[in-house]
Amino acid sequence: MWNTVVSALKTNFTDYHAVDLPGFGANKDCVDSVERMSDFVFSYMDNHQILDAIIIGHSMGGYVALEMLSKQPNRINGIGLIHSHAASDTEEKKDNRKKLISFIERNGEKAFLHQFTKQLIATQNADTNRLNQVNKLVEGTRPEAIISASKAMIKRTDHTNTLSVDIPFLWIIGKEDAFMPYTSVMRQAKLCLTAEIHLLDNVGHLSMYEAPEQTQDIIAGFVESV
Fold first, then answer.
1. 72, 42 Cβ separation under 8 angstroms
2. Domain check: are 131 and 165 in the same one?
3. CATH assignment at residue 172
4. What is the signed CA dihedral for 25, 93, 152, 142, rounded to 10 degrees?
């Protein structure tokens, strides 16, 4: 997910850690709650002797970042919400996730992932090269991971009130994001006491692939300012 930007961000003064959440990448241990995902990241920090950090999360990773902030705010110096938001699922969204779980249980993951990748990027960015990049990104995602992540998102806590914690927030919002309508995300961003907000034109749900250099610059600038 973050390979397109992390290598360009590392400096002599700042370390960046790209962590595979449970069930994804090299991390094969699935969990079905955002709280347990946040516990995993705190354990990672403990194991690497990281006392505090800026936590930057994409989509579900943003839910994990906010959960971490609500649990141990003294260890969080800043939050980056990249194509993410703070609200819990609506009832309609929960129903859709339950239908997805049933679909995966019956049919496996391939048909879902084929359609899912097309929705991740803005239509104008869907050239062959970028679609191949996104397909490689989700390649190997196991059905158990999709199911457990869906269950975690269904029951996640609403963290709208957590946005009032007095630390710096970074928001990267895609104007063409099919999963996070930018108007509602912008309303949430304005609830923060300190917020750096970037609304990217012609970008969907994956600015790291659709606008990698711009995303690098935004994140690097935010980290430097914090």
1. yes
2. no
3. 3.40.50.1820
4. -30
HSE of 3 in the Cβ direction (CA atoms, 13 Å)?
7
Spatial strand order of the sheet with 76-82 comes to 53-58, 76-82, 168-174, 194-200
Over the stretch 147-182, which tens digit does the pLDDT of each residue have? Answer: 999 999 999 999 999 999 999 999 999 999 999 999
Number of structural domains the chain divides into: 2
3-state secondary structure at position 200: strand
Sign of the CA dihedral with 214 first, then 204, 99, and 185 last: positive
Q: What is the pLDDT of residues 95-135, one digit of tens each?
A: 999 999 999 999 999 889 988 988 999 988 888 888 888 88
For residues 177 and 83, state if they share a domain. Answer: yes
- Tens of pLDDT, residue by residue over 57-103, are 999 999 999 999 999 999 999 999 999 999 999 999 999 999 999 99
Predicted TM-score of the model (pTM): 0.94
